[in-house]
Amino acid sequence: MNAALVVEDLEDIRLWLERALLDAFPGVVVQSVATVGQALARVGERAFDVALVDLGLPDGNGLHVVRALRASQPGALPVVVTIYDDDEHLFPALQAGAFGYLLKEQPRELLVAQLRRIVQGEPPLSPPIARRVLAHFARPAPVPAAPAALIVDPQLTERETEVLQRVAKGFTLPEIAQQFGLSRYTVADHVKQIYRKLDVSSRAEAALEAARRGLVNP
Amino acid sequence: MRLAVQGLMAQPATLDDVAADWRAETAQRAETGGFELAWQAQGELTGIVLQPRLRMHATRMLREAVTNALRHSGGKRLEVLLRADSNQLALQVGDDGAGAPAEGGDRAGQGIAGLHRRAHSLGGRCEVVAGPRGGTRVSIELPLHALPDNAAI
Q1: I need a labelling partner for B144 at 20 to 30 A (CA). Which of A10, A46, A203, B108 fits?
Q2: What contacts A141, CB < 8 A, 6 or more positions away?
Q3: How far does Cα A104 stand from its chain's mean position?
Q4: pLDDT tens profile B129-139
């Protein structure tokens, strides 16, 4: 954990995030910017291990930064930082490839602990998001309009569904690991798979939509 | 940290969903602080809807009571009991630490004074007593309806 990027336009929150990063990872080099434009420039200049990205930035949506990181720095972990704990804001961020999200209004020691877990490969997953992911995968799989060149829309495994159901009830990943007799790393891997499937699933939907439009307007 | 939080928790939600959020946050904090958590929920939570304002204040009160137990009690075990019926929401937060802090100028005392203020302005009440087996027990009771109209917190 060497380099972190903070993308946040409000100064007090930016400082709060910087301090949390330094608490979680002593010695980390933190670069902070306030706009999407500045963030994209930094992403083009150097590699980051983790990026904390606010969604509502003065010159656009932080999701652009998440997508740019995903595209150009596969080793970086983009994490969305938001005041919104509702799935309407967070779900699109996860679909854009964010490796989790952090809420601005939460006890500081929790933020630091979550940052450490993220970098150890355990993305945060809150009950509202777990409910939304369950609903997303419970819908009937779309019938392919054009079979060629489509990404297969992934489905959750039984175990992944069980993990989500427990998270939705408010159990933490270590608690779920204990309930299932699994290691916490195994449960974290399930969560990572769920995130990955969400990302693939959204790209499959986009491909399907593009194919459908292609058929309508060749 | 203090923030303008327009949009945060802006939707009414059923108590079982809110309780899951509360449980998740409390369990993570207990783990981080090295506490064992015993969480119990009683009542038919699915049928109870929490309005945004009550949800926000109850969330902060639970958070404050948990902070007191984790930071100031010196204990190892955290007990949370959530009870609800169609009229009232009750939260009890207990620990096995050194006993009730005095309501004075220290941080724990200020936190408890804040709990009393919030409970009062929501038309409810808050009690901090010695637990039956030692430690401290914070009991919060909040009415689900008939909140005072212009209560400022």
Answers
A1: B108
A2: A153, A155
A3: 15
A4: 888 878 999 99
